[in-house]
Amino acid sequence: MKQNIKILVIEDDDSSREALLILLKSIGFTVKGCSSGQDGLGVLSGEPFDIVITDLFLPDLNGIDILTRVKESSPRTEVILVTGYGSAETAVQAMKKGAYDYITKPLNIEELRIIIDKALEKGQLVSENVYLKKQLRDKYEFANIIGNSQAMQQLFSRMKRIIKTDSTVLILGESGTGKELVAKAIHFNGNRKDKPFIAVNCSAIPENLLESELFGHVKGAFTGAVKEKVGKFEAANYGTIFLDEIGTLPMHLQTKLLRVLQEQELERVGSNKQIKLDVRVVSATNVNLEEEVARGNFREDLFYRLNVIPILIPPLRERIEDLLPLTKHFLDKNCRSMQRPIMHIDKEALEALEAYPWNGNVRELENIIERIVALTEGDLITLRDLPANIVKSYVEGTPTSVTPAGIDMVAAINEIEKRMIGEALQLAGGVKARAAVMLNINRTTLVEKMRRLGIPL
């Protein structure tokens, strides 16, 4: 790895510069040397370096000037200053301007080596942090929330209008519709995208621990509080806190949350000290909070505080035109993760998925597609590959009675046969003889029907 690390040495003393270059090269670094500040800045303008080691006192420029220029043009390059005149005042000035460290002559080679390693470690952490933040922003771009329906386009339009504000948002929707995904998209596309996003599931934390989780506590606040704890609100300071399942919050904590929202400050459990906050609050619920207010289960004033900008995510059954792009998205995602060729779904299987009520919404669809990709042998998904409850729902939905408008009896019978054969094959694990027994017909009859109906053999 070290041969990929580039170090520039700026030193006007020829013997000192050459000795340092030989040493760094022997360790394994790629090195280059310059005898003046201007030459060093010229080299830096043409190629990137991970570390610059520069003498503090040069004939043309001093090390502080070089440090300033380096940080302006290449903020991730670490600068180590070297001088023969130890000065605490100069060291402090250098560190304030962004120097990684400061070392005096005569150089202690082992000390310099440790400083270089730590500087590289810091640079790697910074690069990883920048990369991870970019990955998060890319992951939660609006384009990654799948939906072509009019309802979803209206949702995107509202989200785009609010991302640059700090307004409090209440996300409404059934379980599995993607409320946390929307909350993250609002955060990672907004003004606070480089600050923390802290998610709290209010229903998943025991009531006796929830106050401490949200607001923190001081040492000795209660039995077991052996040290102070930073709560989720403090951890989210300058960023966003996402309060999922807010409707389950106990009444006494609703009162404290209301005060935090009103005052933009909190007290840790067991403390009288006020801690100032600058936090955007995004909450979510799958219950009707207005009904909970009417029942006396939720504070009306807190509801109005949270419901500044409501966002409603429609259930999947109300935007069934999004099912195909969602299905393709989850197929691609799981095929890549399981390292298998991209799978496709036939017309009948897609019709069965579209006819299913999807009470678990997008989360249920995602889980089912993952299961299908894991268990299906071929690259084409047919009715037999779907879960039995989806096949059953599809088969039971077939029209079998004659209406005044009439019915295509042959087509209806063919459709019933096709679905029943698909269900039997699925239950039989694809074994035709076993499926024929379930249908109370001969295996040869089953094969003939499969050929006639276009069912893959």
Automatic annotation (TrEMBL):
<keyword id="KW-0805">Transcription regulation</keyword>
<dbReference type="InterPro" id="IPR002197">
    <property type="entry name" value="HTH_Fis"/>
</dbReference>
<dbReference type="InterPro" id="IPR027417">
    <property type="entry name" value="P-loop_NTPase"/>
</dbReference>
<dbReference type="InterPro" id="IPR003593">
    <property type="entry name" value="AAA+_ATPase"/>
</dbReference>
<dbReference type="InterPro" id="IPR009057">
    <property type="entry name" value="Homeodomain-like_sf"/>
</dbReference>
<dbReference type="Pfam" id="PF00158">
    <property type="entry name" value="Sigma54_activat"/>
</dbReference>
<feature type="modified residue" description="4-aspartylphosphate">
    <location>
        <position position="55"/>
    </location>
</feature>
<dbReference type="GO" id="GO:0000160">
    <property type="term" value="P:phosphorelay signal transduction system"/>
</dbReference>
<feature type="domain" description="Response regulatory">
    <location>
        <begin position="6"/>
        <end position="120"/>
    </location>
</feature>
<dbReference type="InterPro" id="IPR011006">
    <property type="entry name" value="CheY-like_superfamily"/>
</dbReference>
<keyword id="KW-0547">Nucleotide-binding</keyword>
<keyword id="KW-0067">ATP-binding</keyword>
<dbReference type="InterPro" id="IPR058031">
    <property type="entry name" value="AAA_lid_NorR"/>
</dbReference>
<dbReference type="Pfam" id="PF02954">
    <property type="entry name" value="HTH_8"/>
</dbReference>
<dbReference type="GO" id="GO:0043565">
    <property type="term" value="F:sequence-specific DNA binding"/>
</dbReference>
<feature type="domain" description="Sigma-54 factor interaction">
    <location>
        <begin position="145"/>
        <end position="374"/>
    </location>
</feature>
<dbReference type="InterPro" id="IPR001789">
    <property type="entry name" value="Sig_transdc_resp-reg_receiver"/>
</dbReference>
<dbReference type="InterPro" id="IPR002078">
    <property type="entry name" value="Sigma_54_int"/>
</dbReference>
<dbReference type="InterPro" id="IPR025662">
    <property type="entry name" value="Sigma_54_int_dom_ATP-bd_1"/>
</dbReference>
<dbReference type="Pfam" id="PF25601">
    <property type="entry name" value="AAA_lid_14"/>
</dbReference>
<keyword id="KW-0804">Transcription</keyword>
<dbReference type="GO" id="GO:0006355">
    <property type="term" value="P:regulation of DNA-templated transcription"/>
</dbReference>
<protein>
    <submittedName>
        <fullName>Sigma-54-dependent transcriptional response regulator</fullName>
    </submittedName>
</protein>
<dbReference type="Pfam" id="PF00072">
    <property type="entry name" value="Response_reg"/>
</dbReference>
<keyword id="KW-0597">Phosphoprotein</keyword>
<dbReference type="GO" id="GO:0005524">
    <property type="term" value="F:ATP binding"/>
</dbReference>
